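not sure who needs this but someone in the group chat was asking about 4-deoxy-L-threo-5-hexosulose-uronate ketol-isomerase from Flavobacterium sufflavum so here u go. i didnt clean anything up, its just raw.
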Amino acid sequence: MAENFKVRYAASPQDVKNYDTTRLREEFLIENLMESDSVNLVYSHYDRFVTGGAVPVKSSLKLGTFEPLKSEYFLERRELGIINVGGSGYVLVDGERFDLDYKEALYVGKSNKEIIFHSIEASNPAKFYLNSTPAHKVFPTKKISQEEAEIVKLGSIETANARTIRKLIVNSVVETCQVQMGMTELKSGSVWNTMPAHVHDRRMEVYFYFEVPKDQAVCHFMGEPQETRHIWMANEQAVISPPWSIHSGSGTSNYTFIWGMAGENLDYGDMDFCKITDLK
């Protein structure tokens, strides 16, 4: 088993204006999250947000702590959101088993010491996508199925953004300190997500794109509304969105993405919208 972590630092919007393509990708794009028999983690200094992937194939995988956390175990001062984007699997949380099928979620509260990931079949392994944030209080661990999510339908075929939003780990569904996660599925013929765009200076966000068909891609837009930049992304890659940045995308096909947020505000509707005609 391999366990790898990387650290990303916060960047000023004034500095980002001067980044070329390579630097932009180095700072914000997260590649190679889903590698067989590995736990891969990225620790961002935006709200101390951890983005990760765990793919148990030959054996189970344990979520261990790593040096920047300065903790005895991973969830000593943290909470964790998990969404399975692969085959059937299960997670052992201090010995209690939680089965997760495709697109099902699990919230794991602070102070759980042992988190172990398992796949049901090695030929179709589970792929556990992870988001973790600092936590100040213990809340119960809870599984959330797709049916238990809060569902919102937005957009239209005419504007190429017809989509279904499933709020999985949000305060209307499960109690958390600050981590929030959900899933947005684009309908066939629609390619735009989060348009009209918005920012929310009270929260940062990470997008994880998946169900991107082979040989297709998503162009993710970021930056201040008057200074936008773009990053081309492949299947099962993530991108960090600073609080001052828009976070929107358009694909060469329809796709699905997971959004994860952290910050001082649990109000999903707390957004500062940007007119499409004002973007530059």
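also The longest helix spans residues 21-28. if thats useful
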